[in-house]
Amino acid sequence: MLFVVPFGFLLRVLTASQELAAVLLNSFFGATGVALVFLFFKNLTQKYFESLLLVGVFGMSISQLVFGSIPETYALTTCSIIASYILLLFCLQQQRVYSACWLAARLFSFGVTITNFAQTVICSVVLLFALVTDSSQFITVDLSLSQPWLLFSKLFKHFLGVSFVSPAPFINRIAPETGRSILSFFAQPLDYKLLGWAALTLWLVLSILGLLRSLQANCRSALLSAAALAVLFNMSLHTVFGTEELFLYTCNFTFPVLLLVVNPSLLKRGYFTWSLTLLIVLMGSNNLIVLGQIAAT
User: Fold this and answer.
1) Strand, coil or helix: what is 181?
2) Residue 185 in 3-state DSSP?
3) Which residues contact 174 (CB under 8 A, 6 or more apart)?
4) What is the pLDDT, as a whole number, of residue 149?
5) Strand partners, 181
6) Which residues face 183 on adjacent strands?
7) Residue 36, C-beta contacts closer than 8 angstroms, at least 6 positions apart
8) DSSP assignment of 97-160, as one string?
9) What is the pTM assigned to this prediction?
10) Is the pLDDT of residue 63 over 90?
C-alpha cells in the first residue's frame, strides 16, 4: 500500500484537499479495474464488442459502483485480483511461467490484503498444474462444510445476487447517534423493486446458462479452475469471517464469479449478447437508483 502514498501526496498538493485527493485516487483505481477487465476479456475472447458487454456487466455491478466511489482500499483490491488473472491468462497463452511477474503480483496482492495474496497464489498454483500436467480439467476440491445451507444462502444472496444487483440498501431502523436510516446490504431479506427483480432474474438466468456450458467437458480450463477455487476459498472463508457485513468483501469475488459464469462460446449467440445488453441497462438503472438513495441520506 505504500506505493500509493506518493500519488496521494501529489494529489493533495495539487488539489489542496485531502478529501478530494482520496476521492480522485480511489476513482482512478476504480476506473483502472474496469480497464483491466476489458484487457482480460479482450485477450480471452479476441472480440471487441463482446468484451465491452462484459465490462459493462462488471462496471455496473453494485460492488464496483460502490467501491469505485467510496475512498477506501476496496478498488485497489479489485485491481490486484484482476491483474493476477491477466497474468494467468498471459502465461497460459505463452505456455511459460514468468517468475519475476508472479513475484511482483504476489508482493502487490500481499500489500493489499492477505485474501488477495491467497487468490494470487491460487492462480499461480493452477498455472503450474496446467503447464506441468498439460491438463485442461478442473481441479477437484473436496470441502467438508458444517453449515451447507448457510453457505448456499450466501452463494445466492451475495456471490450471485447482492454483489451484482443491489436490493434496497436500508433496514427499517434509525441510528440513534445520527438519526439516519441504517445502511445494510446484509442484515435484511432481499428487498427488490420490479426493476431490481427483473435485473436479478435475467442475471441469474444468464449465469446458470454460462455455468452449465462451462461445466461441459470441452469448456473446462485452467482459468475456470482458478476462478472456481477462488470462489470456493471466499465461500469457505466467509462462513466464519465477515459474516455480519459480507457486502464489504464482495470486491474479492465479483470478478472470479463473473469469469466463472461467462462462457466465451455463448458470446457468439445473438440472444446472449442482446440479453447482456438488456442486463446492463436493467442492472445499471437499478444500481444507480440505489446509489442515489444512499447519496440522498
Assistant:
1) strand
2) coil
3) 180, 181, 182
4) 53
5) 174
6) 170
7) 79, 82, 83, 86
8) --HHHHHHHHHHHHHH-HHHHHHHHHHHHHHHHHHHHT--SPPP-----S-HHHHHHHIIIIII
9) 0.81
10) no
